[in-house]
Amino acid sequence: MATVKMILTVLYLLQYSCFGSDVNCKQGDCKPIQDTTQVFCECHKMFRGPACIIDYTDLEDKINGMVYKPVPDLTAIYFSVKELKDFTKEIVESVRHDIQWTQIFVKYSNVTEKFRNISTLHTQLKNGTITQRHYVSEVGAEFTGGSSFQLYLTDFHHMMMGTGFGDKHNILDIFRKSLVQDSQSQSGEPVECTKYYSDQIDYFVRYMFALEKEAVLAWSKYLLVTGKSENIDLLEKIFQDYVSQQWRLFNKNGCGPLKAGDLQNSHCEKLYHSTAQQQVKLKCGGSHKPFPEIVVCSGGQWSASPVCNEEQVNGRVECRSEGGATVCKATCSSGWGSATHPEPSEYKCSQPPCPSFIPHQCNNCTQNSVCKDNEVCTGAFGTCRDTCQVRSPCGVNAKCSSSSNHGSSCTCESPWKGDPYSGCKSQDLQWVHTRDVPSNAVRSKTQLAVCKAIGPDGGWHSGYVNSQSCNFEYDGKSNQASNYEVLVDPCGGRGWIWVDGEQGNMVSYDESKRFPGVIYFVCSVKSDGLVGKLFNTRNGFLCHIPRNGGTKDGSFYALVPQPCL
Ligand SMILES: *[C@@H]1O[C@H](CO)[C@@H](O)[C@H](O)[C@H]1NC(C)=O
Ligand SMILES: *[C@@H]1O[C@H](CO)[C@@H](O)[C@H](O)[C@H]1NC(C)=O
Ligand SMILES: *[C@@H]1O[C@H](CO)[C@@H](O)[C@H](O)[C@H]1NC(C)=O
Ligand SMILES: *[C@@H]1O[C@H](CO)[C@@H](O)[C@H](O)[C@H]1NC(C)=O
Q1: Which of 368, 363, 394 is nearest to 379 (CA)?
Q2: Of 218, 175, 186, 252, whose CA–CA distance to 63 is shortest?
Q3: Would the CB of 147 count as within 6 Å of ligand 3?
Q4: Residues 192, 61 share a domain
């Protein structure tokens, strides 16, 4: 029984095999549908339809998927790189002054040009400009006689990796170097990690991968339509391997985001934006200053977490790196301080991006030396103010003037006299030419106004006013003069005093013409208050008064000025 059944199965298979049926599975296996006599084509990958016809869309998706995986963010560029040829020209021209770059492009121009050529043909095929037959002959012509596509792909790989004969750097590093040098020589501004820089790097990286992928797609298409699809798997493998290696290399030495508040060249974000030993000269916005001035990418890390800060007037900000953190200390210069921050302030940032900061102000003086010459500091943490306004050492009726070296001096304000430091409290008595007796005239205790007139010797002699004449003693006789001066007191009576006997600061008015060297003072005799002139005689100080009889009196008051405040 069992043997019979087995034989029957074999018969079935023979009967229902695809041989002889009108189903023709081009790229697939013919499979029976169970319990029927029908068969179907189970298609190999990338083939579709009842007869397993080539499905190019699938192939494209697959290759795209492959390239997107190791190289993210490329989707956009694959659709935007429309004219690869123009872009190549643009890249070459943007850095044509750089010899190394030019050499690389010349060296690998056969590969890039070939890849561009078949990509263009592929685009023309897809948009219907050329037929499939035309495509096959053109692409085939590109690779006859010379190297096969795989050799070109390997060459391209060498260019990307910098592993070709005589190569020293991978193509991204060469491009980066040219970009930095070229821009710096033109503007003098740092170009590293600017928007321009990262845009150029992005575009370049995407372009290179796009060109590689477009070429692989074009060649895959050629293999498909020429019936060599069995080679596609190997091509895919090589391509995937190359792209992964290239992408890893481009990202291998990068330091990632370089960021800080107010940092202007903060556009290095991706790993491939930077590379080992790359130095970036930092630039902050506004009047901010960067720390450090230059960061270096090394071992996958920037040498410091940068920070931008406002400069400190009358002080300084010193930053340092401390195990990945950035610590800045703001101190005031000697003589300066801050009332609100008496101690130096510290700004610490443990991880990037560090915010920018404005250090506290050093706007309070602590020493006179930081103030202007005519100013002093008002306190321990004070303000520079005019010396005289802060502390005038002057007394009443005295004027303060600030002098150099933060000092000041005082002078009496006219007509006040005295010590400007203790106060200018007196005014000079004044001789006034008049016939009347002013109300503020200096009077004796008997109310006689003090006057002086020119005597026969041509000098002044003091006496008292009576009947609009000045009565004075001269040579032992009484004299009258109608032309005289009256002694008045600007202080209205408080600026003088009669003091018993001769005094050191008596009011004098002339030197004697008759006895050179003898000084005349004002005096008034005690007995009747008559006013006369006092001078030192052989018998001591005597008051000489105009009266009959004894004109010399040793019992007298001397007139002494006194402060009137
Ligand atoms: C690319 O195509 C142009 C013409 O379309 C041809 O002259 C040139 O030689 C080709 N380049 C390469 C490297 O084959
Ligand atoms: C097809 O693609 C080629 C190459 O990119 C282009 O020059 C041509 O204008 C396109 N034609 C159409 C009809 O889109
Ligand atoms: C491209 O040209 C260079 C030298 O000009 C040569 O070494 C290299 O083999 C060429 N590449 C291919 C794939 O023919
Ligand atoms: C510190 O200086 C500022 C600006 O000059 C001033 O306004 C402030 O009053 C000063 N502080 C003290 C305590 O004097």
Answers
A1: 368
A2: 218
A3: yes
A4: yes
